[in-house]
Design a protein that fits this description.
The chain has helices spanning 12-24, 38-47, 62-75, 99-120, 146-166, 185-189, 197-200, 206-218, 228-239, 242-254; strands spanning 2-7, 30-35, 51-56, 78-84, 129-133, 172-176, 223-224. It has a seven-stranded parallel beta sheet, sandwiched between helices. The chain starts with a strand and ends with a helix. By secondary structure, it is an alpha/beta fold. Helix 4 (99-120) links the parallel strand 4 and strand 5 (129-133).
Length: 257
């Protein structure tokens, strides 16, 4: 049995992956939808044409992952696609934010992503795909978004290295690095702080991010960067020294951009 596993499937980018793949991926037997909110997963499952299994769980909990891995063994499933979308961000000055919320970002965005990827690779075969949702925040250190940007820099670096390690086995890893996406992400992120207005001008739709990510994964690309402004931001991050980029960001903040 061929399966696709999507974490963070209850909303936003994860939900959009499920919907687009349901429309176009006829060679997948089952979608395994993973997130904490069971009701939202059940609603999504009912909407899709594929057979779905719902795993209402927090992927930072090892016992829950044990149960999912056991199910893979019992069904003799092959993980054709792993799409890691679970994650969150908190905006605001680092020392003014709740400590548990900050360390929770590291546990979910980095540790849990690493753990589930490590546990599922043994169930992958030639031409399997791993899609890791990073962020354009990975391109540059971001004051007032310090921990989130650092976690996404980890995801991007990890994905690039893992891609090289798995190439001989023909398992392909793509890191997705969108800018601001029109999802519920900002409902949580801006609860204690606000982003620069200029970021809102680069907002894109989740469907566009996912459509490009699936094409880039099919084409075995290392990265997927949606929209011209974010592609330009990536180039700036590669070419311009950090101290200059951070000084520009500081000025934008002072001007209220």
């Amino acid at each position: 049995m061929k399966i696709a596993i999507i974490t963070g499937a209850s909303s936003g980018i994860g939900m959009e992956f499920a919907r687009q793949m349901d429309a176009g991926f006829k060679n997948i037997d089952e979608f395994w939808l993973v997130a904490r909110r069971e009701e939202a997963l059940q609603e999504l499952s009912a909407e899709l044409n594929h057979v779905c299994r719902v795993f209402p769980m927090d992927i930072t909990e090892e016992e829950k992952l044990d149960q999912m891995v056991t199910t893979i063994y019992e069904t003799d499933a092959t993980v054709c696609m792993l799409i890691n979308c679970a994650g969150y961000g908190i905006m605001g000055t680092f020392d003014q934010q709740e400590r548990n919320a900050q360390t929770g970002m590291i546990r979910l965005n980095c540790e849990a992503l690493t753990n589930i990827t490590h546990r599922l690779i043994p169930f992958m075969k030639k031409n399997s795909r791993i899609i890791q949702v990073a962020s354009s925040a990975a391109f540059l250190a971001q004051p007032d978004f310090a921990v989130y940007a650092a976690t996404k820099a980890y995801v991007l670096s990890f994905s690039k290295a893992l891609r090289e390690e798995l190439l001989e086995r023909q398992i392909y890893v793509t890191a997705v690095c969108p800018g601001p996406v029109d999802t519920p992400f900002f409902d949580i992120a801006e609860a204690t702080g606000t982003t620069l207005n200029i970021k809102k001008f680069t907002m894109v739709k989740a469907k566009d991010v996912v459509s490009l990510a699936l094409r880039d994964s099919y084409d075995k690309r290392a990265m997927s960067v949606c929209s011209v402004p974010i592609q330009a931001f990536w180039a700036v991050g590669k070419l311009v020294p950090d101290n200059i980029s951070l000084a520009v960001a500081r000025k934008w903040k002072e001007l209220g951009w």
